[in-house]
Structure formats: structure tokens, C-alpha cells
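for ur thesis appendix - DJ-1/PfpI domain-containing protein. copy paste whatever u need, i formatted it the way the template wanted (i think)
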Amino acid sequence: MPAKVIFLMADYGHDPTETAIPWQVFQTAGLEVSFATEKGQSPVCDNKMLSGWTGTLLGANKAARNAYEALSTTSPSFQKPLAWQDASFTLEDYDLVFLPGGHEKGVRQIIDSSRVHELLARYFSLTKKPSQKALAAICHGVQVLAMASESDGRSVLHDVKTTALPAFMEQGIFHATKLFLGDYYKTYGAGTDSVEGFVKERLADKGQFANSISPRP
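the 3d part is after this line
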């Protein structure tokens, strides 16, 4: 049987590259891919990354656009996802849980969800080695994971070495575009903490955060 992967998503706002390219990789590898949104509504990625001048100058490249087009038109699970708010929904049957990134304010639906935090905390405990289960997150997806807490109230990432969207990149694009796009690149609005700052506050030691992590040999 192929390994099973599930994407946990908000209804709107995820980065199309960080959603469609991983899906494409998983599909090519022969994995069984599922999706879940709050109520089972088909997710829609951030339109500013796909159209208009923002899409042209700041958005997804041609490969990512093609991958997103394939995902949104050919994947039955993407078109009719599961509902993570349902009481019967569980992550325990999956080999990999994946959290794509996205800075559009719609992703706050999943970042702030106590139901998602509960699901992730329960699953995270199942990934401890020698378990073959894994959990992966990109950029703002790490902020979702950082919100999930153990029974002692500490983040599941408290003792973990991790990375996420670096603050210098987030602040740089925000300041470069704020005259035209306002606080579009700040998920919780201008003046709020960066993803890096948010995640670091939930770690035992800020040194556990790395701007990049090389895979183990």
C-alpha cells in the first residue's frame, strides 16, 4: 500500500507554490494524497499569487502555476476534501501530515484553530522515532504547528530544532510593498510579530531556530 499524506488547510489563502509543488512531488512518488479544510470546502490558494500584477511580479512561477492548475482540476480530494472540524476526523491513519505556507490573512483560520492544534498535538507524539510517521511544514505552516501544545501547555516544538519564514525576508517584502499592498504581507497586520519571532517565543531556546536546516547525511 502507498504511504498516505494529508494536507491540513484553511479555506483560502495558502501559497500556491507551497501547496501545488509538494502535491506534485508526492503524486510523482506514488503517495496517496488527501486534503482537509474546516468544513470540507475545496481550498482556494491566494489569488494575488496567481493573477494581476502581483502574480506577475511577486507570485508563482510557470511551473507552480501549472502544478496548481493540475491540482485544482484533477485531484478529487482537493475538490472534495475532508472536514477537520468533524469530531470523527483524525490524523492517526496518515503517514505524513503536511502544512503548506501562506501569508494571506485567510490562513488565520487554521493558525488560530483550537481543533487543528488538538489534532496536531496528538499526531506529533506519534512521530517520535522509531516511528515512520512524519510531520512537515513550510513557512507560516510552522506557526500553525507552534500553536499546538502538549498537556503541560508547552508547544510541541518546545524542545525541537526548527525553521520557518525568516524575519528578514518577511519584513523585507512587507516594507518593499506596503505603499502598494498595505499590510498584505503581514498575516496579523502591520506591527505584529514575524513568523520567526512567534515561533522562537515557543521554543525552549531561541538558538533552536535556524534560518535554514540541512538534511542529515
